Amino acid sequence: MARTLCRIFKGCQSICSLPLMKTRLHPSASVLLRTVCVRRMLTLPFRFSPKAQDFSLPNSSWGAEMRQLYEHYNSQCEEEMKGEEKQDWAWKRVPSYNRTLKHATGGVYLSKIYQSKARFFTRNIKEPGAAFEYVLFVSKDEQKCVCIFQAGHLLEGPQGSLILKNHATAFFRRVQEEKYWIRYVHGGAIATMIDTVTVTHASVLTLLIMTANLNINYRRPIPLGSTVLIDSSLNKTEGRKVLISCKVTSTDGSKLHTEATALFVVSRLLGG
Ligand SMILES: CCCCCCCCCCCCCCCC(=O)SCCNC(=O)CCNC(=O)[C@H](O)C(C)(C)COP(=O)(O)OP(=O)(O)OC[C@H]1O[C@@H](n2cnc3c(N)ncnc32)[C@H](O)[C@@H]1OP(=O)(O)O
């Protein structure tokens, strides 16, 4: 750490002293070099930035459906004044960062370089909207959790055909041109989201938990790029075990895409 800081300090010194350098660079090239160096300094890794980015806030990639639902739940998160006291409304938005700790500890299997590069699987793709775009809200009494999920193009899974049986021959050519194909979300990506939503829900109820069992039934494919709702409900807690059930539906709730149950076990470190 000390060495890194020393290097940064030296870097700053060299940038500041650029105009004094006896160099044959053209003045405009020197200015350009300085601009590039300063930009580099400003885009240093997250560990040097003062504030972590919350990825569960609206961005330009969010579709109209995602925004509407976000507004719907977020409006219920505002605080209400009752007498002198401030009272929370029914839902709370769960902030989402791209790593657990400012400096990921990594564990014994990770080298120091990998530790500093460790990122949450669902928040590690930089392009907004390219993969897992989601926001989570948990109910005040913590029995329920809801996630608005927009599946980006990097989560492509199987393909399906939009043509009806009777028209298959007539449209054969166009099908060849891929005009009538629809793409669906990869089942592994759906499982990842179910795990993420249920584990977050369970984490709100108790700390230091691990997924012990995840049971998924895929009922209807999810079109790539669409927005869906992931609803998770607490079934029961039993000693160190937390049982949660989960449903993935269309935003109006009319289509059931996936249903799952998850079992979480509280770490022995917490006793129980
Ligand atoms: C505001 C708040 C913000 C919060 C913000 C949160 C951020 C959220 C970040 C997201 C982060 C993503 C993270 C994703 C979640 C993972 O992906 S977790 C990673 C995948 N899971 C693993 O690697 C777990 C590997 N397995 C294990 O470590 C251990 O088997 C376990 C699960 C800890 C259990 O081991 P153990 O503590 O020794 O427990 P054990 O005594 O064997 O069993 C305890 C009980 O559970 C039962 N059990 C254990 N395993 C099973 C099983 N597979 N099936 C059925 N029953 C089982 C046992 O039968 C026993 O039952 P009882 O006899 O008590 O009735």
TrEMBL record:
GO terms for cellular component: mitochondrial inner membrane; mitochondrial intermembrane space; ruffle membrane. SUPFAM superfamilies: Thioesterase/thiol ester dehydrase-isomerase (SSF54637). InterPro entries: HotDog_dom_sf (IPR029069), THEM4/THEM5_acyl-CoA_thioest (IPR052365), Thioestr_dom (IPR006683). It catalyses: octanoyl-CoA + H2O = octanoate + CoA + H(+); dodecanoyl-CoA + H2O = dodecanoate + CoA + H(+); hexadecanoyl-CoA + H2O = hexadecanoate + CoA + H(+); (5Z,8Z,11Z,14Z)-eicosatetraenoyl-CoA + H2O = (5Z,8Z,11Z,14Z)-eicosatetraenoate + CoA + H(+). It comes from the Eukaryota. GO terms for molecular function: hydrolase activity. It is a peripheral membrane protein. CDD domains: PaaI_thioesterase. The keyword Cell cycle does not apply. Residues 184-254 form the Thioesterase domain. GO terms for biological process: apoptotic process; fatty acid metabolic process. Keywords: Apoptosis, Cell membrane, Cell projection, Cytoplasm, Fatty acid metabolism, Hydrolase, Lipid metabolism, Membrane, Mitochondrion, Mitochondrion inner membrane, Transit peptide. Belongs to the THEM4/THEM5 thioesterase family. This is Acyl-coenzyme A thioesterase THEM4.
